[in-house]
Amino acid sequence: MYRLIATDLDGTLLNAHHQVDPFTIDVLRKLERQGVAIAIATGRHYSDVAGIRDVLGVRAHLITSNGARVHDPDDREIFAENIRPEFVRRLVSHDVADDAIVNLFLDRDWLIDRDAPELLRYHQDSGFRYAVTDLRAYPGHDVAKVLYIAEPETLARVETNLEREFADELYVTYSLADCLEVMSPVVSKGRALQVVLDRLGITRADCVAFGDNMNDIDMLETAGRPFMMGNSNPDLIARLPHVPRIGNNFDAAVARQLTQLFDLENLQDDAPVA
């Protein structure tokens, strides 16, 4: 049976209110008690995801900023990769960012170029907050991820600017239709998942993974048993047509799929998974 569960958060493990469903908490805690390891793999900031892990009540590895950071269950950093500072200084310029809201994810901080209180609804469980900062004055050090938030039309222009300025010198992906994310070119959720697999001595074949958007492609391709959500980005469905689709995130579909996959209804709560 599978030894590691790797899951995205928004649109996947979290419900429509970007919170954890009680049924999901129950299922993940039960699987952990039976010896199954858990990895949360998300574009979110490490400090934010650590708060969500506390709500889940499991000792999960954290793959954050789309793989730019990996922490073990004891919060030790086991992988980190930053964007080159000179690139960051260009990424926050209007020539590249256009009119998008610009965010920088550092080790502990979330910096943003303007007040955007509507974003805080995504962080109800963790309580994570941004700091409004003049990003053009920031020297660009220790940045795991640059996040642009805007309407798709604006992000299309940003994407064109990124291609013109940087070509393949950065990893650029969408986590939502209105969220364009930029990391070092050696970063992805799939590569970070391999770090966790190697650390735990688990093969890809023993890993099950769940995702819903374009930043999940590498992770789904790395896992031996991938699933995508029924609410997945159509571009992801077209890119990975062989990956089975399950229910939607607002119906705790990950937890329901895990219940079937591990036969939890017929397994004693304290029995180890074979």
TrEMBL record:
Entry's family note: Belongs to the HAD-like hydrolase superfamily. Cof family.
| Short name of any one Pfam family annotated for the protein | Hydrolase_3
Enumerate the cofactors the protein uses. Mg(2+)
**Molecular-function annotations in GO:** metal ion binding; phosphatase activity
Q: Does the keyword Magnesium apply?
A: yes
Q: What is this protein called?
A: Cof-type HAD-IIB family hydrolase
Record Gene3D superfamilies: 3.30.1240.10, HAD superfamily/HAD-like
Keyword Glycoprotein listed? The answer is no
Supply the source organism for this entry.
Pararobbsia silviterrae
Q: Which UniProt keywords apply?
A: Hydrolase, Magnesium, Metal-binding
**Cross-referenced NCBIfam families, in alphabetical order?**
Cof-subfamily, HAD-SF-IIB
Q: What is the lineage of its organism?
A: Bacteria, Pseudomonadati, Pseudomonadota, Betaproteobacteria, Burkholderiales
